[in-house]
Amino acid sequence: MARRNVWSGEETMELLEIIKEHNFMHLFATASRGQKEYDVYRMIEEEMQKNGFNGKDAGQIYHKWKNLKRAFYQSKKQNKGRAICEFAEELGDILEKPWALKRREPDPPVEPVEGEPAPVKKRNNAQIKTIRSQIVAKLAKAQNDNTDEFAKKWNDLNDYEFKLYKRKEKEQTVVMNRLLEESKTSLMTRCRDMLAGRSMLITEVVEGEEDEEDEEVEVEIDRLNVIEIVTTDLEIAPGEEETVKDFQMQSDRRSHFFVDQFAERLFSILFTFRYYIGTMAAKQLSPIVKSYLILYNAVQVLGWCYMLYQLIAYYTIDKGTEKTLWEYIGFTVILFQNAAVLEIVHAFTRIVPSNPIITTFQVLSRVMVVCGVVMATPTGKDSPGLPLALLAWSVTEIIRYAYYALNLIDAVPQVLVFLRYTTFIVLYPIGVTGELLCFYWAQSHVAKTKQWSIEMPNTANFTFSYLYFLWAVMLLYIPLFPQMYMHMFAQRKKILGSGSSHAGKQKNN
User: Fold this and answer.
1) What are the residue boundaries of the structural domains of the chain, listed by start?
2) What GO CC terms are in its UniProt record (predicted)?
3) Strand boundaries in 151-293, DSSP class E
């Protein structure tokens, strides 16, 4: 069986280099078919053996050269005169460029040294050129160029945004300092006039008829009517007028000095307080505060997990117990639900970026259900809405506090973000339904006993109906629930987008 004519890339490159260097194309053109053409291939075989390639004979060289030429011309024909094949560049140099008719003399043979292997000619270009390697090289070069250009543009953009931020911050600082200086001057002037007993002029704008211009009326306010000053008429002996005037001038200077000092101290305290409150939210949390928030959220997660376990166990493991649901789970609910009051403190002290007003309403509404409805009335404990509210609260708070805790260490998984902004679709209506049922069951007891109600007549001349208060809170759910529900959908769209998991971390705690 004849041996397969398999050529490596290095052997093919050596063949093309030999044909190009020794101008074998001229010999191919002048030699006739037959023995003379075979002699040309024998010459190529000898050159390859000199250079260390002994595995190819003249017949194999003939077939390889024939296949290379066929692939080159077919590629040119199919690609409109442009060859796209292996070794296209080298074949183009050989087959398309005219060569001198004179054959270049081969290099003189190198005399072998006794005891050493025969010298092998090494090519400078030892790289195996294929279409794939050329494409990969071009892609790598383009990728490097694009990466460098992108990095440069990105750095320029960051520098430009930082310059804009610094410029805006500087402008706002100048405006704030100017306003503070004006406020300081105005405050010191008013305090000085007030303590010195001078009258102050206030310009009041009075609205007149449609065709009349606004009138400015100067209303004189005598501060002496506010501060009652007891004066005593003293008889001044002749010659003591100058002494009294000097004493009065010194007293005025002392009062002005103390007023200035007092105003400066007060203004400094107010400015420091405003700056502290305004910038605390923008600063990084201290390690102590951050550790406290992580601990608080972790404890809440454990507490609400235990509450969910108790709720499930009451209807499964301990089914048939003589205790009511509130007797079984009430202490855990009171402990961890009322612990949420600390979130109001967190919001007002600005250690978390939550809105203090919204946080207060959200927390106190649940505290009202627990303390003002369920704990206060026996009918509230028997309400069918209690297990619904506890189920919705438990699942919601487990997800929420876990999200807060992991967000503080930048380790929120995508599944938790999805649950945080998806489970409310079902849990929010369930929780609101349970809360309203608790209110409704409690109001029947309050209507009979008039619990926590104050009726006329009494010494304070004041009346209060706890029944009406419960109904007022229930009616507030009508306008507030749709707004909060739609707000959560807006937050979901902002965080999750249209089906994509956008991990924009909003650190609410």
Assistant:
1) 9-96, 280-496
2) endoplasmic reticulum membrane
3) 200-206, 215-221
